[in-house]
Amino acid sequence: MNLKILAKTLGALILLEAMAMIICGLFAYFDTVAGDEGAMAALFMSAGICIMGGIVLMLFGVGKIKRIPRREGIVIVGLGWLICGTLGGMPYMICEPGMPASDAFFESLSGFTTTGSSVMTDIESWPRGILLWRSMTQWLGGMGILVLFVAVLSYLGMGSKSLFRNESSFQTSEASTARIRDTAMTLWTVYLVITAVCLVGLKLMGLSWFNAVCHSFTVVSTGGFSPHNASIAYYSDWGNGWLIELWLSLFMVICSISFLIWGVILSHRWKRLRDEEEGKWFVIICLFSAVLIAAGLVIRDGSNFLDALRGTWFTVVSITSTTGFGLVDYEPWPAYALMILAMLMLMGGCSGSTAGGLKLSRLLVFLKTARFEVVRAFRPYQVFRMHVNGNALGEQQRSQTVMFTALYAFVTIFSCFVVALLEAYQGIDMLTCFGAVVATLANIGPGFGDVGPTENFAHLGPATKVFLGLLMVLGRLELFAILVLFIPSLWRKY
């Protein structure tokens, strides 16, 4: 393991995080709302600590980096997210009303991984500078702070490929059609444009600049943090509340589909767009689920179909995109509706998007592979050609998908056991246990039971919060970039 490469690259990454803290600190300095003086001091102090740590690491790793080998790239990705999440919790600890270390670690990682789970019991009591930092962490984590790192630091050269491949969920065959650095820059350009369009739309609908910025940051990143205790339900009583919900749901759908698709549209490669089945299935599943749940609510409660569809559509999109914005309390819904939401939580969005979960493309491959195996049972010599999004899939890709799905299921079951063990003294119920694990591993935000849409994670023990924070990173990096850190051979010297 080349420690100099690790030190220099992680040091530069920490400096990048410090710059984001300084931007939020400057907002707190110029903000006219009382109480932001504490936020300014906390953000500047945290930025100073990050700058000192980053400089020390960069001095230790002084020298030119020609390339980052694959092994070092994997370690940088895994440690980079953990370090950024840990340091990002400092403003929550320093600023009043303050948080203990475990809560700050949880809240920060929930931001960077765009999970959206929170331990803040009264969000509106926090200074606006801290709430902006809270939203900023999700916006940076949405596209991936390391993808931004690849885009802006040209000295990474060939080594940027190993970071990009292990940090993001983009399909290698599509991301490699151009230089990785150029691809990363294109993705962030699209990300910025979508954020700006969303921001302007929210401002025109009557939101303040602060609220428009915070919500545009967290909807485009499919993160779900809101500066209001009631989340998006805060706007439900507005005359144009339905329009705000529709606008936000539109961007949740847009950002749950691979960002490479928007690059395809800009380059007029219509054949690739016609081959896109993952995005089409995502929209179909969301529409079908929302209508099915709304119909059930109409039959059970006799409510108006359009009113029911308004709540179910937003909730389904928010859950499937793993954004986690709150609008209605879905826990009183019928059992079949909750089962649909649980399946949508595990499925998540599309590969190459800011959404979390298992990813719809893997589900498509898994289902096609299952069909292939069933047919092969009575037609062993039949030849199959399997495609997803126009890309041919070989035996290795199919087996990797099946293995990943099985590993994901195992991690979910094992994590439920760990949380149940850690919370045994509080008598946690199985629904809450399952909801907490799925909400954090799939980077969704709200779960079921005592961590449902009207609750939060504040009542859980410190050890449980740390464990769930690690689950967020594990899910955000799709298991391997974190699990590989526990393989002893990875750390051996050359």
TrEMBL record:
The keyword Transport applies. The chain crosses the membrane at residues 12-30, 42-62, 74-94, 136-156, 188-210, 246-267, 279-299, 311-328, 335-358, 402-421, 428-446, 466-491. It is found in: Cell inner membrane. One of its GO terms (cellular component) is plasma membrane. Pfam families: TrkH. Coiled coil: none annotated. It is a multi-pass membrane protein. InterPro entries: Cat_transpt (IPR003445), TrkH (IPR004772). Keywords: Cell inner membrane, Cell membrane, Ion transport, Membrane, Metal-binding, Potassium, Potassium transport, Transmembrane, Transmembrane helix, Transport. GO terms for molecular function: metal ion binding; potassium:chloride symporter activity. Its main location: membrane. K(+) binds at residues 114-115, 223, 322-323, 443. Belongs to the TrkH potassium transport family. This is TrkH family potassium uptake protein. It comes from Persicirhabdus sediminis.
